[in-house]
Amino acid sequence: MRRARPSDAAALTRIAHASKRHWRYPEEWIALWREALTVTPWVVERAPVYCAEEGGAVVGFYALSGRAPAMELEHCWVLPARIGRGIGARLLEHAAATGRAARASTLSIASDPFAVGFYRRMGARPAGTVPSTPRGRTLPLLLLRV
User: Fold this and answer.
1) Which residues are registered as beta bridge partners of 70?
2) 39: how many CB neighbours lie within 10 A of its CB?
3) 46: burial class by Cβ within 10 Å (0-12, 13-18, 19+)?
4) What is the number of domains present in the chain?
């Protein structure tokens, strides 16, 4: 695990898009989410953004936002070919440790519906829903004590 660099932004964006497409969402929805799935050098410079690497290549990442006591998990993505190999768990454990170091007590997670089971297995608990895109869609809101 390493801190992301601004030069990683394009690779992180590609991972986010590839991971979202893994769930076979319509391309019209992917287009609506383009901005939300884009990681800019500015974000990498200003937020806690960490990468998981294998063989020198970035295979997943997470980003946090906010301040204690409650921070938000903005991104947590793994390359589709690496899903199910423990990378997501390592990323989330590192995110929790990063939150603790920042004196947060919880991470809020607006979860993709396909990822809820993963977050629940990692200890996150349901806390409602939040509005999403496209209009009328909601996402499960989970809280993870850190």
Assistant:
1) 67, 106
2) 25
3) exposed
4) 1
Which residue, 146, 108, 104, is CA-closest to 130? 108
pLDDT in tens, the chain (146 residues): 999 999 999 999 999 999 999 999 999 999 999 999 999 999 999 999 999 999 999 999 999 999 999 999 999 999 999 999 999 999 999 999 999 999 999 999 999 999 999 999 999 999 999 999 999 999 999 999 99
Domain encompassing residue 94: 2-145
Q: What's the gap between Cα 25 and its chain centre?
A: 17
Token duo for residue 107 = 């991470």
Strand runs labelled E in 41-101? 49-54, 57-67, 70-78
How many other CB atoms are there within 10 angstroms of residue 146's CB atom?
Answer: 22
Q: Six-digit token pair at 20?
A: 């979202």
Looking up tokens 């590839």, which residue turns up? 18
Task: Give dist(CA 16, CA 78) in Å, integer.
Answer: 8
Given the structure tokens 């800019």, which residue do they identify? Answer: 40
CATH number at residue 13: 3.40.630.30
The pLDDT value given to residue 76:
98
